[in-house]
Each structure stands twice: as structure tokens, then as C-alpha cells.
Design a protein that fits this description.
Elements (H helix, E strand, L loop, with lengths): L5 H5 L13 H12 L11 E5 L2 H7 L15 E7 L14 H18 L3 E5 L4 H8 L6 E9 L9 H7 L8 H4 L8
Antiparallel strand pairs: 1-2, 2-4, 3-4
The structure holds flavin mononucleotide.
The site of flavin mononucleotide (FMN) has 9 residues, from strand 3.
Length: 185
Amino acid sequence: MTELLPEIAKRRANRALSDTPVSADTLARIMTAATYAPSCFNNQSWRYLVLNEAASLAKVHPALSEGNYWAQHAPVLIVVATRADLDCRLSDGREYALFDCGLATQNLLLQAVKEGLFAHPMAGFDPVAVKSAFDIPETYTVITLVAIGYPGEGAYLSDKHQTAETSARSRKPENEVIAYNRWTL
Ligand SMILES: Cc1cc2nc3c(=O)[nH]c(=O)nc-3n(C[C@H](O)[C@H](O)[C@H](O)COP(=O)(O)O)c2cc1C
């Protein structure tokens, strides 16, 4: 796997986070990386709310799904939000706001890996509660939370999640998801 970018090869959805703070400079680089992503018409539909103060983090904790208990240990949580009208909307129904958020958020994850951090996106949360906690207008979709932290012991992890920390990456066979020259999928 050495032929892949090292950050791509290394990135995993880890949960064993240390409570060591992430410096403002490091966070700023991670967020700048997100904003360097391409986007339809350069619309930059991503909106990020970065939480790194105890009081702000505590406001998100009740919104996490039960299975995401581990994210309460993250010293940084990032709320990713967008609105469909912030990006290209084509007449055949193609909407690019979420797609462009995905591109930017992957940049963020890879820069975090480069900085020696774990960065783990989540769908398991109550978006209404997150919006309410931070007065995010109703018109936005809160699409993901990203938990960020330095690698830790993970003493708080369930047995299942402890095992997952060192599990092999699991992926569909490439011929199920990639075709060359003919649609064989
Ligand atoms: C949009 C999205 C939502 C996810 N939601 C959760 C989540 O709520 N809780 C969780 O533990 N992991 C979540 N994950 C992590 C995935 O389970 C993980 O990326 C996947 O199993 C592949 O593992 P890997 O990232 O280590 O390669 C999410 C990932 C993405 C991209």
C-alpha cells in the first residue's frame, strides 16, 4: 500500500481518543485543508462549526446516539452543515451541496491524519438537538459530526469497539464498485 498517499492509507475511523487538547494552529490547518476542496462553480457549500471549549462540547454530548458514547471523549467536535441552495442545483435534480461537503470533509480528515490525529465522521446524532443547541437555522442540514483527538488508550471503549481499533480495513471487492470502459456493476 505504499503507493497510496500515506494519509489515505493510514486513515481509519478510530475511537480511542486522548483528551490532550488540539492546538489552535493545528485546528486552523485542518480547517484550511477543508476549504481547499473543489466545489461546483466554486460555491463552497460547506459550513463548519468547530467546538473545542468544554462548554460547547458539552452541548453536543446529549445529541450523540448511544453507540457514539466514545465521542464524548473527543477534545474537538466539528459540526458540518450545509443548505441545498448554497450550491449547484441542476434541472434534472442533481444537487451538489452534500457532495461538496463530503469532498471538503475528506480533506479535513486527511489533514488531521497528517497532524497525527484521529478524525472520525458520524451520522449517529440528533440533528434537531444539535441545531437547537447552537441556534443553527432550521434551513440548514447538519450532515455530519467529526470527532477529533490524539490517539489514546481507549479505556472507556466497549469490548467491540476496543477490538475494532486494530481490526483490518473492510471493503467490498473493487470489481463490485469500479468498472473500466463497460458498466459491469
Ligand atoms: C457519513 C458517515 C457516517 C458515519 N457514522 C458513524 C457513526 O455514527 N458512528 C461510528 O462509530 N462511525 C461512523 N462512521 C464511520 C464508519 O463506520 C467507518 O468509516 C467505516 O466503517 C469504514 O471504516 P474505516 O473508516 O476505518 O475505513 C461514519 C462514517 C461516515 C463517512
